[in-house]
Amino acid sequence: MSSHSSNIVNASLFKKKVNYIGKKLLENNNDYNMNNNFFSIVFISDTHSEQLTENKRKNSSLEQYCMLLKKVKVHPEVCCIIHGGDAIQGFTNNSKKSNLQLKQFIAATKLELYEQMEPTKLIPFVMNIGNHDYCYDGKRDHSSDNFNDLVGENSDLIMLKKNSLDIILLETGDTHNGFVNINSFKKEINSVEKKIKKEHKKVLFLLDMHIPPQLGELSKYSNHTLNSQLTNEFVRFLNKYQNRIIAISTHHIHNFRSEDSALPIYIHPQGNIPIYLTSNGGQKDSSKHSKIQYKCLKMNFEMNENTPILKDVAEIK
Ligand SMILES: [Zn+2]
């Protein structure tokens, strides 16, 4: 065990919220791995994990997800795993049951990524919120209390590479056509912009959003994309930061059949920003688990004088 990690890898850290742990590990890794010129970021999502019961153990969505994590772990260049939301299947009307499911999902993730690994090889993990991660408990709509208690903020900006690369975790809400309403979405975009302005001018961004914008091919799935009002607001934001956003990962649409999810589903003309769709970490219809090929995306970067360049994207399956 190297001495630098031992001070942060301890039991009390691993009891903290998942995104807090991820951020701490990222900070720690950055302090000691500044010379890494090649690195990768992995995007996984839509695990829709359900509570394990004895008869559901085999091929459960949670087990499939853990198998995928095992495949990611063998790549030493992976510096972070981003989960794009819908971690759990959830219960729309039972906050307690959803809470248990999320706890089980988080316990499985920590076991796979943080236990019995050498401290220097821990892969930081952070999560975005998906529509299934909210709960309606009868008193409140759109409750993200479970997520906030166990994971972290609804939307966030997280440093991946010090002074060069951050990820924006954009919240896209819980309704079938996007956020709760345009005003709350505008408010969120505003707060993201404030966070961007605070960053060093040289920092570039990846952006993760659970529900895709209504652009290009994605428009065919209008029930599962941000509505046009929200998409317009998002495009305004994209155009404004076109020189700083490298790529977008989005999820949520399960039935999109593409030969190769490593190809962008859309390239935003201003700034040539590629949008990738991955939602193959899981599948909400549990009867189909055995037929789904679980996969995630690995974005490979090269650092060129402190500027991260996206070299290529590959599937891990
Ligand atoms: Zn979803």
Q: Can you characterise this structure?
A:
There is one protein chain. The chain has seven helices and eleven strands. With 317 residues, the chain is α/β, with parallel strands linked by helices. It has one domain (3-316): 4-Layer Sandwich (Purple Acid Phosphatase, chain A, domain 2), CATH 3.60.21. The strands form two sheets. It has a six-stranded mixed β-sheet. Helix 3 packs parallel to helix 4. The chain is globular. Bound molecules: zinc ion. Zinc ion binds at residues 86, 130-132, 210, 252.
Number of domains: 1
Helices, by number, come to 7
SSE run? HHEHEHEHEEHEHEEEEE
Outline: globular
Number of strands: 11
Question: What hetero molecules are in the model?
Answer: zinc ion
Which CATH first-tier class would you pick?
A: Alpha Beta
Overview in brief:
This protein is an alpha/beta fold and 317 residues long.
Keywords:
317 residues, alpha/beta, Purple Acid Phosphatase, chain A, domain 2, 6-stranded mixed β-sheet, globular, binds zinc ion
